[in-house]
Task: inverse folding
């Protein structure tokens, strides 16, 4: 990985590593990490969980039991949801482990196994609260 660089400022660790250190070394929960960022702006809990999953990819040990206890098991896909996501990725020609610039979560959600285009492509202002919540839940799982 590459540290974040700014002119005239010492190299900073990537954001995922900052979240990981707070989770592991300071024993903070994902929601606490999400609420208090160096930038002063809160992020989604799902963003912090993504940082912890990136730490796993980078070879760092992550207590997933503690993560699940913090955010709940519904945050992660069930076996059935996982299979639906795999199928939707194939149907939409999306490779989640390929080039991130070519990966579109929205394309996966457009698949009829997930939400379908009639929901995903609807203007945000016309979506019901239930539709917005379902979409948010699926984005978190992706």
Result:
């Amino acid at each position: 990985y590459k540290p974040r660089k700014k002119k005239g400022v010492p190299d900073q660790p990537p954001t995922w590593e900052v979240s990981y250190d707070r989770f592991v070394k300071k024993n903070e929960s994902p929601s606490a990490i999400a609420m208090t960022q160096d930038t002063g702006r809160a992020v989604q809990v799902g963003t912090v969980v993504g940082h912890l999953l990136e730490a796993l990819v980078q070879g760092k040990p992550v207590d997933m039991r503690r993560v699940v206890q913090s955010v709940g098991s519904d945050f992660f896909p069930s076996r059935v949801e996982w299979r639906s996501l795999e199928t939707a990725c194939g149907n939409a020609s999306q490779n989640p482990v390929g080039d991130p610039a070519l990966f579109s979560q929205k394309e996966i959600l457009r698949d009829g196994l997930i939400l379908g285009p009639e929901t995903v492509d609807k203007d945000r202002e016309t979506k019901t609260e239930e539709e917005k919540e379902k979409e948010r839940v699926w984005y978190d799982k992706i």
DSSP finds eight helices and two strands in the chain.
